[in-house]
């Protein structure tokens, strides 16, 4: 890929066609096109509307529990300084966690769902559909649907239904109907196909609540804007707590909504190094990973052009990750653009490394992180010992790991 | 510049009957069988052939066409093989129009310019690419038109009068009216509504209007054909193939013969359409 010229600002996308450079766009069937244009019209109306913002802020504060804390992870910092000392480096940056795991429903997903449910309400829609991988977005969608009295159908790959059973039960308790999808490998990609099929069939009354910053324009933009509260808060909090910007910020990237939410407000702070973590699965040599930006190529799927895992014939591959939330063969289009423009580095972390970080964080911090977030922590574990003690790293702790205890127990060969 | 599609449509108009447009999945269940199906279509009464290009994630298709695409991919079908199939067909039939139908990614990965060159060389006359709405015309539609390949657009019940001109603007060959919102293979929409929609589209264009999604029987083909310039049948044909495959994909009867029998019946429905309308 040719590197695009470095822009004056990295925060101006997308353009009117919904493009971030060559990425993004509106690659959907004609049936959906009028709906997407209608969504864009409503989105443009509300995004600068004071009443809409006030309602969202009120819910974010009193219902979701924002602002989420920026927590100095003293235990992990101490541990990594010991590692640094043992290597004779004598360093170890200060590690902060942005505590999205403390939000209502246990992850960053609620930020986007609250914004979109208010949009659905304004548009006069009567029914909510959503896709989910780990079940975090499904739970958040079912939650806001319950709160606002919408019927809700969640599409979830059959494999994910099996490995995330606690979340399936939560969705059912919240009144949502969970429809398992058996096509393909039965993961997030297949759930998204099925949600799109539902939408194409029920165009009149249905709002598609996409869970990540991907899909046809304007979804990547609106999901990013709803998630940017993470980075806006983190930026203000670190200035307040440390009196300066961080040196490095890290977040895990599946579709990439928690990452773009953290990254976007920092994109024009050129001193801040930004790192996105892809699921390296069992390694990038084979096909058992989900590192679309490290091992894939640009292509068109689910309404947008972006980096995808695909074969030479343009057929999409299934990929693999220990983390259901990262088990997706694509990525949001803005990440693809940030990759090619060189502003953000995207690096893979393996299943085993994430599993180790999961256990380490639990032990030294008393925090059980989601396996998705554990990927981001695993990268911090790698780089922090080689950094100086006066440096600062923020890791997005995008969700809590209660949902993953069965998976982890299995991986560790334990029975619970 | 006229294409085989333009010439075929003009001929049928002169004959006073609608076209039977038949969709089948290229490579389902394997290359050779699929080619034999394709070769059997014109003799059975198909006027225009839609050659399906399999895609791993066909988000606008129902279970039948999804399954057919997966069978084809499992059987080793690729875009290159689908084009080869078209050129082998062309060696025996230089008249029946071929429309390639599928999704954009395999074309994008092949390279748009290279694809258009290969498609022309293989005797392809038109393209239907489900996930390229008019907003994305620069990607493939404009280059295809420049290369002399028809770009056939789908119009749907959600395409209102305000949007219709945009949808029709770069459409050529014919307009494919999707008779309902939904995926392929769903139940047929109210035929009265379909006739009204065809009339609405004809108010905006001189192009022939073919109607698809939900047509399964000769009787339905006859009713739709009374108002439309063509009737598209897809899922029923794909099912005819699936019905002669055993649990392990083995053939229990000749798929080409099964498809030909179905298409012959549909063809009679189409040929009776205007007679019925005239009564």
From TrEMBL, chain A:
PANTHER family: TRYPTOPHAN SYNTHASE, TRYPTOPHAN SYNTHASE-RELATED. It is an enzyme of class 4 (lyase). InterPro entries: Trp_synth_b_CS, Trp_synth_beta, Trp_synth_beta/beta-like, TrpB-like_PALP, TrpB-like_PALP_sf. Tetramer of two alpha and two beta chains. GO terms for molecular function: tryptophan synthase activity. Its EC number is 4.2.1.20. Belongs to the TrpB family. The gene is trpB. The modification N6-(pyridoxal phosphate)lysine is found at residue 109. This is Tryptophan synthase beta chain. Residues 87-398 form the Tryptophan synthase beta chain-like PALP domain. PROSITE patterns: TRP_SYNTHASE_BETA (PS00168). It catalyses: (1S,2R)-1-C-(indol-3-yl)glycerol 3-phosphate + L-serine = D-glyceraldehyde 3-phosphate + L-tryptophan + H2O. The beta subunit is responsible for the synthesis of L-tryptophan from indole and L-serine. Pathway: Amino-acid biosynthesis; L-tryptophan biosynthesis; L-tryptophan from chorismate: step 5/5.
TrEMBL record, chain B:
Keywords: Amino-acid biosynthesis, Aromatic amino acid biosynthesis, Lyase, Tryptophan biosynthesis. Pfam families: Trp_syntA. HAMAP family: Trp_synth_alpha. Pathway: Amino-acid biosynthesis; L-tryptophan biosynthesis; L-tryptophan from chorismate: step 5/5. Tetramer of two alpha and two beta chains. It comes from Mesorhizobium muleiense. This is Tryptophan synthase alpha chain. The keyword Zinc does not apply. It catalyses: (1S,2R)-1-C-(indol-3-yl)glycerol 3-phosphate + L-serine = D-glyceraldehyde 3-phosphate + L-tryptophan + H2O.
